[in-house]
Amino acid sequence: MTGSIRLLTYLAPSIPAGLFELVAAEIEARAGVGVALAFETRTSGPTPDADPFEEGRADVAFVCGPSYPLLRAAGRPVEIVGAAPVFDDPRNEGRPVYYSDLIVGRDHPARAFADLRSAVWTYNDRQSLSGWFRMLSRLEALGLGHPDAFFSRVFPSGAHVASIDGVARGDADVSAVDSNTLLLARRRDPTLDSRIRVLESWGPSPVQPLIARGGLAAPLRTRITETLLGMDASPATARRLREFGVLRFAPVSERDYGSL
Questions:
Q1: 226-249 b/e (C-beta count within 10 Å ≥ 16 → b)
Q2: CB atoms inside a 10 Å sphere around CB 32
Q3: Do 33 and 5 meet the contact criterion of CB atoms below 8 Å apart?
Q4: Which one of 44, 140, 166, 207 is CB 3.0 to 4.6 Å from 128, fit for a cystine?
Q5: pTM flag (> 0.85)
Q6: How far apart are CA 12 and CA 244, in angstroms?
Q7: 61-71 burial string, b = 16+ CB within 10 Å, else e?
Q8: What's the pLDDT tens digit per position in 185-204?
Q9: How far apart (Å, rounded) are the C-alpha atoms in residues 224 and 218?
């Protein structure tokens, strides 16, 4: 094993930490490089004002999709690592995609998004595609104005799992959440559907990517990509992936994320 890399993820706890621990272990074993794994839980992804690559905190990072074009637009030399997870939601049809699922309390009277006027909205954070930007796009498409005017209250939960819990408890009326997070939450708690329901689904969108700092050696980036794409070839590792709702990693490219 030669050298080491810093792997940072912005996606836990909504995507379980164990998935990223598994990825780190596989990269160490198969790409021949040590991995120092860290978690950033305050936001879904970096911005030019808080860039972990520029700050020397990361060589590669799992981020929510909007961070990639945002960093590129600011001139940051980040690159897409060419592999992303395929979750086993049937709607994904074997693709590395996900949806924004709009959830409300099971007994909420709304039957469409427009019925949510004056509802209490909770969201994970404002760097999130599924939790924030898709809601803004829906409001704009329907001509319903700014969220602060349409909803009676808008407040951050800090994570998709917290948004799901908040709606299930009745602390909020509605939230838009990562469909893969909701998939896993339903499996952990079979009673969840007695307390929430999906009102609308928006997407699909390309699933959250792994991005690398521009200075990361191309051969190492290739080894990382090949490691991810081959993880399901081992029956033991494939079983571990399925524990986190992941079927495999599939190829992705810049074209998938440039227009988010």
A1: ebbbebbeeeebeebbeebbbbbb
A2: 13
A3: yes
A4: 44
A5: yes
A6: 12
A7: bbbbbbbbebb
A8: 999 999 999 999 999 999 99
A9: 10
